[in-house]
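User: Fold this; tokens only.

Assistant: Input:
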Amino acid sequence: MMLLLQPDENATWLAPYAYIIVLLGFAFFLFRVFENWYAAAYNRPLYRHYFVYKKVTSEQRKILEQEFTFYGKLSPKHKRQFQHRVASFISEKKFVGRDQLVVTERMKVLIAAMGCMLSFGRKNYEYVLIEFILIYPGEFYSSINNDYHKGEFNPRERALVLSWKHFEEGYKITDDNLNLGIHEFMHAMQLEAIRSKDIDSSRFGKQFQNILQELTQQDVKDKLDETRYFRAYAFSNQYEFMAVLTEYFIESPGDFRSHFPKLYDYTKKLLNFNFAGY
């Protein structure tokens, strides 16, 4: 026995919605194409936020206001964005104290703020390769190379590992170009740029290659040898150079810009750092 299927009388009502869905999908595709073109053409993302709605607690805001210099230099709009990012970071990462260290709210806020400062010019600011923040009181033994470290990024364990003593020294002394937090967060950002294909990673890769190309110029080589401006550890490899370069960029931008203006400009574009006077 054959059943004759009658057309659903309501199907005609669904057709306009199907067209709308198709049109929205096509519009979204065109937007993504434009977004990628814009990022490539202007060396910055088209936008950095869909929505800004998360807020830090009054205690957390007080820590930012009293202890994190960068936050105080931001406009009211950028402060709201920064709070949103810090609150997101704290809620998404697992902070773990080691060697009997008790993790305080101050530790969470300052570590989150350091990471959010470095990624503040990016649309993708979450550090997706980091799940755990492991905090030791001081230097710790690392099985990576069987030595004692002040900090490391361990992608296999999805962990950023820090000596609190040296992290705190790094952010409190703002003009010695030694900042453990910036150094280790940059390593995480570097690896993410290699593994990801988003617009921030593409921009990172482009400007990183510009930096490496600039280092091949003879006049730059001569000046690096003559001035010994960057500390020797920077020349361990290209990844350590980028991490050290970022420490200098954050902590002494005026001095860096006067010595190596092109390297400064490429680093600024890499981070899209158009805030707080940079």
